[in-house]
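User: Good morning. I'm curious how flavin-adenine dinucleotide would be positioned relative to this chain. Could you predict the structure with it bound?
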Amino acid sequence: MSNTLDGISEIPQRLLASEALPTLILGGGFTGLFTALHLSRQHYTTPTILIDREWSFIFKPLLYEVLSGEMNMQFICHRYDSLLHKSGITFIRDEVQSIDLQQRQVRLASGLHYTYSNLVLSLGGVVSYCGVKGAKEYTLPFSTIEDAIALGKQLRDCLQRATQSEELHQKKKLLTFAILGAGRTGVELAATLADLLPDWYTSLGGEIADIRVVIIQRGKEILKSDSDRLRQTAEDALQKRSVSVEVMLETAVIQVRSNIIVIKRNDRIEEINAATIIWTTGIVTNPLIDTLSIPEGGRDQQGRLKLTDTLELLDFPEVFAGGDCAVTEHPLPLTAQVAYQQGSTIAHNLQALSEGHSPIDAEIKMRGTLMKLGLKEGVAELSNHYEMKGHLGHLIRQATYIELLPTPARNFKGTIEWISDELFQKYAGV
Ligand SMILES: Cc1cc2nc3c(=O)[nH]c(=O)nc-3n(C[C@H](O)[C@H](O)[C@H](O)COP(=O)(O)OP(=O)(O)OC[C@H]3O[C@@H](n4cnc5c(N)ncnc54)[C@H](O)[C@@H]3O)c2cc1C
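Assistant: Good morning! Here's the predicted structure, ligand included:
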C-alpha cells in the first residue's frame, strides 16, 4: 500500500512545481508502458502519470511458460514502480472510471481526478464471449497471470481426481481438455497442454492414452490470419505432441454448460463432456472506450478508436491511442509487437508537440511471428519469408522475448527490435 501513497503524494508536488497540466497514460500494457519508458528516455519535461489497475506489467506472450512451470512468475511480471523508478514518470495504481474528452478530465475509482494536457489511451481489450450462452460462466479465460495460475490449479486438480476415479464416464470427463478458438492463443495453449498434461499425468501414475485435448474452431482452418506455411507447421506440431490434439473445424460452439460444450457440426447438435473448457477467442475494446463521446465515424465496426497516421484521435489531436483499443487506416493485427512500436511513436510525438514540432507518422514493422508449439518447441517466422521450427524455433522465440522483457527505465535500451539485427543477418540475410 505504501507505494500507492508514495505515488499519489508525488503528484501534487510535481504539478505545483511545473504548474503544467500532466500528460496522462491510461493503461500500462505494451502501448502504455513503452510510451512511458520512451518518454523517460527522451527526458520529456511535461509531468507524466501512468495509471493502471494492476501493480505489475505482465509480458503476456510468455504466460504459457508460467502455466507450464518453464518460467517462474517473477520473470514475466514486473512491478511498475520498479520499472519506472527514477524515470520521472509517476505511477498510480487505480481503476480509471471515466474519461471526458471534451473537458479533458479523467476520474479514478479512488476519487482522484485529473485535467490533462495530453492523453494516451492504452487500455487494451477485454474478452468477448461472442454471445455464446454460458461461455462466461463455464469457461476459463487465459489472458492474465491470475488466469494462468487458476488454469494450472484446475489442470492438476483434474489429473489428480482422475487417478482416483473409478467411474469411466467421470474419468473421461476429467481427462478431456477443450480449447475454444484456434487463433494463436488457442493453438499455442493446445500445443502446450498436449505435452504438459501427459507429463504431469504420468508422474501421478496415469495413462497418457486416456488424455484428450480438443481444439474447436468455427471456421475452416486454424490460424486464419496467418500464412499457409505457418498454419501447416502448426497443424503438424499439434499432431506430433505427446498426445495429438484433436482439431475440430467448422464446428460452432452454441452453448456451454457446467462441464458440457454444446456444438453444432455437419448440421448436427452434439455435446462434449469436458471438466476443463478454456475460452481463447474474441477480443473487444475496453468498455471505457465505448463510453467516450466522440463524433460518429470515430470508431470501426469492433468499436476500436480510429486514429490518424500520427496515432492521434480524429478530432482530438491532444489524445493519442494505440494497441488493442485502436485502429489505423490500414488495420494491424492485435499484437504486442504492434502495440509497443506504437508506444514508441506516441512518445516521439508527445515530445515533438511539446517542442512545437509536427508529429510523425507511425511506421510499424511487422518483423515476424513467434509461436510456442509445445514444450521446448516453437516456430519463428521472420518477415514472413523464413521459418525456423522445432527446437530452433523455440530457442529463437525464447531469446527474442527475453531480450524484449522491459527493464527499468534507467537501463532501458530504447531501440527494442522484434528480432535482433543479428538474428536477421544470421538467418534471413537482410
Ligand atoms: C495469452 C496471450 C498471449 C499473447 N501472445 C502474444 C504474442 O506471442 N505476440 C504478440 O505480439 N502478442 C501476443 N498477445 C497479444 C498482446 O498481449 C496484446 O496485443 C497486447 O498486450 C496489447 O497491448 P495494449 O497496450 O493494447 O493492451 P494491454 O497490454 O492489454 O494493456 C492494457 C492495460 O490497461 C489496463 N487497464 C485496463 N482497463 C483499465 C482501467 N479501467 N483502469 C486502469 N487500468 C486499466 C490493464 O490492466 C492493462 O495493463 C498475447 C495475448 C495473450 C492474452
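Residues 365-430 form one domain. The two ends are 49 Å apart (CA to CA).
Let me know if you'd like a different ligand tried.
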